[in-house]
Amino acid sequence: MSRPDPPDDFTVQIGGVRAEWCATCKAWTKTTGDAQLLTPDGVTALGTWGVCQICEDPEVRQEGRRA
Predict the structure, then answer these.
(1) Which of 1, 6, 31, 46 has a 20 to 30 Å separation from 13 between CA atoms?
(2) d(CA 60, CA 53)
């Protein structure tokens, strides 16, 4: 079974942005949101993304490696 071609006209929308607990750095510093694909045929849930302000900061990661 072949997959249909992706639509030519689409938009990726991030919704439901919220703060979450980061298990790595043990703080409420993770931002999470739901990714949705908007097309003329409707809305498709792509998944959830998340990024931590502390864990993703290159300066903080370098300091952590030196310790």
Answers:
(1) 1
(2) 10
Structure tokens at 63: 């300091």
Q: Tell me the backbone φ, ψ of residue 62, rounded to 5 degrees.
A: -65, -40
Q: What is the pLDDT along the chain (67 residues), one digit of tens a residue?
A: 677 776 678 888 888 899 999 999 899 999 999 999 998 889 999 999 899 998 887 776 555 544 3
User: What type of residue is 39?
Assistant: T
d(CA 47, CA 51): 14
pTM above 0.70, yes or no: no
Distance between CA atoms of residues 39 and 23, nearest Å: 35
Q: Which of 43, 39, 37 is nearest to 14 (CA)?
A: 37
| Distance between CA atoms of residues 60 and 48, nearest Å | 24
